Every structure is written in C-alpha cells, then in structure tokens.
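Backbones bend. To wit:
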Amino acid sequence: MTVVNGTGPGKPVLFFDIDNCLYSRSTKVQDLMAELIDKYFAKHLDLPWEEAVRLHKEYYTSYGLAIEGLVRHHRINPLEYNAEVDDALPLQDIIKPDPELRKLLEGIDKSKVKIWLFTNAYVTHAKRVVRLLGIEDLFDGLTYCDYSQMPLICKPHPDMYKKGMREAGVSDVKDCYFVDDSYLNCTKARDFGWTAAHLVEEGLPVPEKTASQYQIRHLSELRAVYPQFFKPV
C-alpha cells in the first residue's frame, strides 16, 4: 500500500475514513482513546480532571483533533502525544480480522476506482488498524495527518481534502467519493465538491439535517450508494 504517492490520474477515488468507520463504535476504541487523551491533558497541562475533559472536548470541537489545540496553544510535541495516546491503545486485543468487510472491499472494481484511506490519525495508527482488520492489501494508498509536519493539516480543513486529492492522484472534485462517520467531515467534503456518505451506525441518533448527499447505517450500503464502483453480484 502506497503511503503518500498517488497512483496516477484517470480514475475516480473512493476515500475511506478509518476509525469508527472501518470498525464499529461498539469496539469502544473511541472511549479508550478519549480516556488516554484526557489523561494526557491532565498530566502534561497540569489540569484537574474535569478541566482536562472540558478542554479536550473544546479542542476536538474547534479543530477536529484534540492534538491540533495542543499544538496551537501549548506547543506539545505531536509525536510524543501519538506515542502516549494512539500508539498506546491495546488495539491487538480489540480489533480482529473482519471477513465481511474484506468481502465488501474485494467487491469494488478497481479497474473503475481507486480506494484510498483518508484519516486524521498518524500513519502508525492507521496502518496498525487496517493490518489488524486484515484489509491492508486492498487499498491503493493512505493520506494521514502528518504529526511530524507543522502546521498540522487534518479534516475538516479544506487543505486536507486537497492533500488527499493530490496524494491519490485525482484533480477533479467530481471524481472524489467519500465515507466517514464524522458529520462535520462529511459536511465539509460536500462543501468542497466531493460526494460523501455519512455513516451513522445503527443505534446512533439520526441527525435532523443530513451531513451530505448520502447517509448510511452500514458500510454494506455503499453498494447501493456507489453502485458504479462495484462488481456485479
């Protein structure tokens, strides 16, 4: 799987978010990550627990990533943060190979579309997740938030969508298709000109206003949403 270099022009690209998208929220990875982030805020900013939780939420809401606020306002080293948060998650005990997901991805006709990972996580976390899911060989590449480069560029900033297009080798926003569990990321992708499917898992409340062109409850619905990219059943 290519990490940063595009695979050349000519095909549309279907961008996949990773966390809470390629695996279910029921894994509670997000809860474990939130706890590690809160601990990081409390420890490194010397904050009471309640203030650490509040500030974490504020930065996530404002910037799309808690680390963005830490870097902007506290000059935290992003790679040290990554080591204590994302890379400290016991993912090997939680995320297992997903044959159903693999079958869905194998059903995509790659003569018609590239499939590309598109995440706000750092490269180490992104690669670890898809390896544990047993699908790392199915993607054409990966665009991630590079914690080693300042300023940080992440969804939903327009520069992140531009970065994804550049690295995936696609020049026209009309050739960009997307699935993400984040309402804001899907809204901004739509505004940028992409076609987006907002994943709202079963059991989660449906937003009053849809985030983007499509809203789905399960990744399997991508067959109906983007039928032009799938092999005949």
